[in-house]
């Protein structure tokens, strides 16, 4: 399969919101995204002037994308990969790896010190990132808290 990669604008990103819906419905994610939330997510990712939005095209159709933005820490500025997804019908064809390669080239061009992302700790996704040269942080983990509507209404 031949595909190309290039930068996309917000309109093109929003037109490909179904990628989030379809890619995250499949294992290991099994998330139930609706198209409106997917569009809101893509709007968030494209709203920063310094964000990098790249897509893989099969002809004129977007089949995968990656969104990243600068993130400065104690070691300097790096690139945070906020989202990377490929249509299930186009997975295991090298598209995700190619998108990572292109985002890495952008980071090098911009003289960023590192690239980081948040993903699964174990399983195929973790193996995929390790195979692409990414190491799991020994110092960091992700914390999350679900805020229920009931608790929010008690504050008001």
Automatic annotation (TrEMBL):
SUPFAM superfamilies: Acyl-CoA N-acyltransferases (Nat)
UniProt KW Acetylation keyword: no
Keyword Acyltransferase attributed: yes
Keywords: Acyltransferase, Transferase
InterPro entries linked: Acyl_CoA_acyltransferase, Bact_Acetyltransf, GNAT_dom
GO MF entry, a single one: acyltransferase activity, transferring groups other than amino-acyl groups
Domain N-acetyltransferase: from-to ranges: 3-153
Pfam family, one: Acetyltransf_1
Protein name according to UniProt: Putative N-acetyltransferase YhbS
Species: Rhizobium metallidurans
């Amino acid at each position: 399969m031949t595909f190309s990669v290039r930068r996309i604008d917000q309109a093109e990103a929003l037109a490909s919101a179904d990628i989030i819906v379809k890619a995250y419905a499949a294992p290991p994610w099994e998330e139930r995204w609706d198209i409106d939330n997917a569009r809101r997510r893509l709007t968030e990712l494209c709203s920063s002037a310094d964000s990098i939005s790249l897509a893989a095209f099969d002809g004129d159709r977007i089949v995968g994308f990656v969104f990243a933005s600068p993130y400065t820490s104690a070691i300097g500025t790096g690139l945070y990969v906020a989202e990377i997804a490929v249509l299930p019908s186009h997975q295991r064809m090298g598209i995700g790896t190619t998108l990572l390669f292109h985002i890495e080239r952008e980071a090098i061009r911009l003289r960023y010190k590192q690239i980081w992302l948040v993903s699964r700790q174990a399983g195929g996704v973790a193996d995929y990132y390790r195979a692409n040269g990414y190491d799991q942080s020994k110092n960091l983990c992700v914390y999350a808290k679900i805020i229920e509507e009931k608790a929010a209404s008690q504050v008001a």
